[in-house]
């Protein structure tokens, strides 16, 4: 290090030290002032605020940048209280925010995320799930409220203390108040309330002088003025009768309400030709005249017209309209009314002006500006920083500010149909296609049933003997199967199973979208002759808006609710949330007898619901002492009862003759035991390993047939989720085509499963056959974690990036389908897929695209700045570049000749910004669409100049002007033609050989075709 560098470093250290000393002195001085003003109680309050923030983020599971997140929140709170000298305002706001924090940590106990403003729509069901909320409420949650309460107490005590001090100093207490000037008293009480304590005596005198100079009159001035009804000032002695309320200026600069006379209101509309000024001495006479002009018996005002017009009547006996108006000049009437309003408007203006001055006087513009600046900086993330992203998604203020603005201003059109792959047609070819054709279909959604109880013994006791027997008989057991719910939980599980789409996270799907059009399993089966019905025994038929949603989903009938409340079920035995399952199932069988066969019955159980309170006679498991009165122990009892009730159901179906000819699909709707210290400890003991998400979110799926000619016996380990049930069942029922939008797959024929998650695990998380990836709560991919679900061993994060993008696409597709009512528009209204999708195709097709470096053969393939420059200088306006992704999810290029990195992402962006006339044709190995998102965040202007080449049909989403590479897509001519017709293929590229061979028939058609001549380094438009 040279001398100059040492000197520079020394200067930096010196100024840094000076800054730290200044900050320390400022904090020390502020603390001393604060303690001097608020005392020990203030110190305790400050300590509790800091402690509350730390506890809050621990409860919210904040993992990344914990200290930074805490500091940002404390800065927001500091600026909030610093923004005004009237501490009651921030104290009230802080109390409201504390309640929101309480709600956040409670909601996070369920769903492991912040409470979004969109969930306000679900507030109506809070009362119905009160018992479940009580169970997840921890005493520590109430710590979110303690500091707010103490701050309010502190301000109340300070107010009393200040009032006592002022009384002693002035020698004037409430009993000594001068009642001759109540306005002054009110002003002094305001001062005692410390609302305007920032006004010192000098400022008060200056304010009085300003107001006096602006025309405000003292009481003495008003008394000395002649009283005239046409004066702008209306005097107190003129308003001794009941009338319109009126603000009057007083000598103290304050305003009090007086009363205007009824006579003056009438005078505003008297005949202006005979109008005279009424002096103060004539006021009584004017009032008498006003009374004479009013008919008490009729309640009408007497007309001021002459005798001739007085008797004139129309044919129906009414006074003619022209005689009623007489000589009244309407314009002058309004002018007089406006004249009388002048004093009111003038005094109202003074009130607003005074209030504004006082509000400004007690606010701290610098603190408010700093609050807004930090909020904008953390929520907009203009530098696309992963650190800021992490803060925004974890920090309390930033998250909720962004959430509110997103909810208020987002147009909801950013999603698309990216994950609609139409895979069913390729996946239905298998030995079991149509194996259950014409069988009754009975799908049983079991409340909160997790997979770990299946086949497990507890202290030598079988927990689910009936389900175990089915699996051992003729059933397929899917042991790598997961929940896929949204904010609606149980109702979203129903939705996912019947429609192969995810429920929304915004609120609950059944309420927001019950007027949408769907073509899920109920409709698909109805169209091949099935009678469809749904059964549920919640006491309220309309709970979760089921009564509205089921017809939209295509169910013919809905049996639900309790008799006496407009429902169908007799309340013969109550337990937990309603009718016991062992009573619900027999009544359901009676209703099933009314259905025409074949039928589809969707049956929803209820007893195995949090908090798992059981009647003593149904406690079949002998629990160990340490598990009694624990949530896990209660769950084991409840799960055992649920299995018993299912046995009752099967027996009833056999007796009714509906068992043998039915296909049964049994699954759990969602997790029953979410993470907590108590649950994790108990579950680790039961499982013999840590209780992680692959166990928490895993639910059983059992497909069983009593007809052994349908060979279903076996275990499938392919990863699957609830959205996969519809195509899987459709396959067994022999449905030829799923003419709807779906995101699931047939689990009998696919080899590699994929399950996107959005609840409990953050959106972007997923499971495969072997791997679990948990997206970080802070929204930064690199901060997530991945592990092998069989061994628990960590997995390299970089290998999960493509799965993360796929997971996001699947959830976004479902959200877009719901918001746009895409199924109605495509399958009912007949709109094209291109019109329904959110992307607009607008770019002009270039006649040729050249490899970067063309026409210099030495530069072609280097993917360098020099190669781009050479092609641009040669006049080429569409240049091809090979782009890859690094481990940080950032694009870069490689020199194909040397293998070295040539350009980082900022080099690519910078080059495009410096060459506005050139479009870049990017050959992306994968995740091409993400490239546009990435570039759009860094430099939105570049988006119009990027064309993507994607390698296969799975990568092609049609969202942007992408070119499908038919050479690497692995499609036959027939498949390629079908894919091009079904999707928004903007253009396709092929080799010269393929253009003359297998894809030659595509030339001359409607799709734009490019021929890729790699040797020459040029891609030419031929069609």
Write a structural description.
- With 1023 residues, the protein is an alpha/beta fold.
- The chain has 36 helices and 32 strands.
- A hairpin with a 4-residue loop joins strand 19 and strand 20.
- It is globular, with a radius of gyration of 38 Å.
- 37% of the residues are buried.
- About 15% of the residues have low confidence.
Strand proportion:
5-15%
Rg, Cα atoms, Å: 38 Å
Poorly predicted regions: 174-207, 213-328
Major sheet summary line: 8 strands, mixed
**How much helicity do the residues have?**
40-55%
Mean pLDDT: 81
For the largest sheet, list the strands in their spatial order: 11-10-14-5-15-16-8-17
Structural class: alpha/beta
Distance between the termini: 64 Å
Q: What oligomeric state is this?
A: single chain
Number of strands: 32
Number of helices: 36
Approximate shape: globular
Entry keywords:
32 strands; globular; alpha/beta; eight-stranded mixed beta sheet; 1023 residues; eight-stranded mixed β-barrel
How are the SSEs placed, and which strands pair?
Layout: H1 3-59, H2 66-82, H3 88-111, H4 130-136, H5 143-170, H6 182-192, H7 201-213, H8 219-224, E1 245-249, E2 255-259, H9 262-267, H10 283-292, E3 294-295, E4 300-301, H11 307-310, H12 321-325, H13 330-362, H14 365-380, H15 386-394, H16 396-409, H17 424-427, E5 440-446, E6 457-458, E7 461-462, H18 465-472, E8 475-478, E9 481-482, H19 490-499, H20 509-512, H21 521-526, E10 531-536, H22 546-553, E11 557-560, E12 574-575, E13 578-579, H23 581-592, E14 599-604, H24 631-656, E15 662-668, H25 677-687, H26 693-696, E16 701-704, E17 714-716, E18 720-721, H27 725-733, E19 754-757, E20 762-768, E21 771-775, E22 785-788, H28 801-820, H29 822-828, H30 833-836, E23 848-851, H31 865-873, E24 878-885, E25 891-894, E26 901-903, H32 905-914, E27 919-924, H33 928-938, E28 946-950, E29 962-965, H34 966-969, H35 973-982, E30 987-991, H36 992-996, E31 1009-1013, E32 1018-1021
Parallel strand pairs: 5-14, 5-15, 8-17, 9-18, 10-11, 10-14, 23-24, 24-27, 27-28, 28-29, 29-30, 30-31
Antiparallel strand pairs: 1-2, 3-4, 6-7, 8-16, 12-13, 15-16, 19-20, 20-21, 21-22, 23-32, 24-25, 25-26, 31-32
């Amino acid at each position: 290090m040279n001398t100059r560098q040492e000197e520079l470093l020394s200067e930096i250290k010196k100024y840094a030290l000076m800054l730290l000393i200044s900050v320390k002195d400022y904090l020390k001085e502020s603390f001393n002032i604060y303690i001097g003003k608020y005392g020990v109680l203030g110190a305790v309050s400050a300590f509790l605020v800091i402690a509350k923030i730390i506890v809050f983020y621990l409860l919210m599971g904040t993992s990344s940048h914990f200290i930074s997140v805490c500091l940002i929140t404390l800065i927001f709170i500091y600026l909030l209280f610093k923004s005004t000298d009237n501490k009651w305002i921030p104290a009230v706001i802080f109390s409201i925010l504390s309640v929101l924090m309480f709600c956040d940590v409670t909601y996070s106990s369920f769903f492991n995320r912040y409470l979004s403003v969109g969930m306000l729509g679900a507030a109506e069901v809070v009362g119905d799930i009160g018992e479940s909320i009580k169970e997840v409420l921890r005493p520590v949650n109430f710590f979110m409220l303690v500091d707010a309460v103490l701050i309010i107490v502190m301000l109340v005590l300070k107010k009393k203390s200040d009032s006592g001090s002022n009384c002693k100093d002035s020698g004037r207490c409430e009993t000594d108040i001068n009642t001759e000037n109540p306005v002054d008293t009110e002003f002094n009480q305001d001062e005692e309330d410390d609302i305007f304590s920032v006004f010192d005596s000098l400022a008060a005198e200056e304010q009085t002088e300003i107001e006096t100079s602006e025309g405000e009159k003292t009481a003495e001035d008003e008394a000395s003025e002649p009283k005239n009804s046409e004066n702008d000032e209306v005097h107190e002695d003129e308003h001794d009768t009941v009338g319109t309320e009126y603000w009057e200026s007083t000598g103290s600069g304050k305003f009090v309400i007086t009363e205007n006379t009824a006579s003056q209101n009438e005078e505003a509309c008297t005949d202006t030709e005979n109008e005279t000024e009424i002096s103060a001495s004539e006021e009584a006479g004017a009032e008498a005249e006003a009374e004479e002009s009013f008919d008490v018996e009729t309640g009408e005002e007497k007309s001021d017209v002459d005798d001739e017009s007085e008797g004139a009547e129309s044919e129906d006996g009414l006074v003619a309209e022209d005689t009623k108006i007489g000589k009244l000049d309407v314009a002058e009437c309004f002018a007089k009314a406006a004249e009388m309003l002048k004093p009111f408007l003038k005094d109202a203006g003074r009130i607003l002006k005074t209030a504004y001055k006082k509000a400004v006087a007690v606010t701290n513009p610098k603190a408010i500006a700093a609050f807004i600046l930090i909020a904008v900086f953390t929520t907009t993330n203009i530098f696309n920083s992963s650190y800021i992203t992490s803060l925004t998604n974890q920090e309390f203020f930033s998250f909720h500010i962004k959430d509110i603005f997103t909810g208020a201003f987002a147009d909801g059109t950013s999603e698309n149909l990216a994950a609609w792959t139409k895979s069913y047609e390729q996946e239905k070819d298998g030995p079991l296609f149509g194996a259950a054709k014409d069988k009754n279909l009975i799908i049983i959604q079991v409340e909160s049933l997790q997979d770990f109880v299946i086949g497990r013994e507890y202290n030598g006791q079988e927990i689910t003997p009936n389900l175990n027997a089915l699996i051992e008989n003729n059933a397929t057991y899917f042991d790598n199967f997961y929940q896929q719910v949204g904010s609606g939980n149980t109702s979203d599980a129903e939705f996912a199973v019947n429609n192969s789409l995810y429920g929304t996270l915004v609120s609950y799907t059944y309420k927001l979208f019950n007027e949408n059009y769907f073509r899920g399993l109920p409709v698909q089966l109805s169209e091949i002759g099935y009678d469809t019905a749904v059964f549920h025994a919640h006491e309220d038929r309309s709970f979760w808006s089921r009564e509205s949603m089921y017809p939209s989903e295509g169910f013919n009938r809905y049996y639900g609710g309790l008799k006496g409340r407009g429902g169908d079920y007799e309340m013969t035995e109550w337990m937990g949330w309603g009718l016991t399952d062992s009573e619900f199932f027999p009544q359901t069988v009676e209703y099933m007898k009314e259905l025409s066969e074949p039928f589809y019955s969707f049956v929803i159980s209820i007893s195995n619901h949090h908090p798992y309170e059981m009647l003593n006679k149904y406690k079949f498991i002998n629990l160990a002492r340490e598990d009694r009165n624990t949530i896990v122990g209660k769950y084991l009892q409840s799960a055992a009862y649920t299995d018993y009730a299912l046995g009752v159901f099967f027996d009833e179906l056999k007796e009714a003759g509906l068992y043998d000819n039915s296909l049964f699909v049994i699954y759990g709707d969602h997790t029953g035991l979410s993470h907590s210290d108590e649950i994790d400890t108990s579950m680790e003991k039961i499982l013999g390993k840590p209780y992680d998400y692959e166990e928490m979110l895993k639910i059983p799926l059992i497909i069983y047939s009593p007809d052994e000619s349908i060979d279903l016996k076996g275990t499938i380990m392919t990863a699957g989720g609830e959205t996969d049930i519809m195509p899987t069942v459709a396959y067994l029922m022999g449905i030829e085509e799923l003419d709807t939008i779906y995101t699931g797959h047939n689990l009998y024929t696919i080899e590699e499963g994929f399950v996107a998650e959005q609840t409990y695990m953050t959106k972007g998380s997923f499971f495969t056959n072997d791997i679990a990836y948990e997206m970080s709560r802070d929204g930064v991919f690199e901060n997530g974690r991945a592990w092998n679900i069989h061994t628990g061993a960590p997995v390299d994060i970089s290998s999960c990036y493509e799965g993360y993008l796929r997971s996001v696409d699947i959830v976004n597709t479902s959200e877009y389908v719901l918001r746009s009512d895409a199924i109605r528009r495509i399958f009912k209204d007949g709109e094209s897929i291109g019109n329904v999708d959110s992307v607009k195709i607008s770019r002009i097709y270039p006649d040729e695209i050249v490899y970067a470096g063309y026409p210099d053969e030495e530069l072609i393939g280097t993917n360098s700045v020099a190669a781009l420059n050479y092609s641009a200088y040669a006049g080429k306006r569409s240049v091809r570049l090979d782009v890859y992704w690094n481990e940080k999810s950032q694009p870069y290029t490689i020199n194909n000749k040397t293998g070295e990195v040539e350009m980082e992402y900022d080099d690519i962006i910078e080059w495009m910004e410096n060459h506005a006339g050139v479009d870049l044709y990017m050959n992306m190995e994968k995740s091409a669409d993400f490239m546009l998102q990435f570039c759009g965040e860094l430099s939105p202007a570049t988006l119009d100049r990027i064309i993507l080449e994607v390698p296969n049909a799975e990568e092609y989403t049609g969202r942007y002007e992408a070119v499908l590479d038919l050479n690497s897509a692995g499609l036959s001519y027939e498949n390629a033609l079908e894919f091009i017709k079904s999707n928004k293929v903007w253009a396709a590229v092929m080799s010269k050989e393929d253009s003359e061979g297998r894809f030659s028939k595509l030339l001359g058609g409607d799709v734009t075709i490019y021929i890729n001549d790699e040797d020459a380094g040029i891609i030419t438009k031929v069609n």
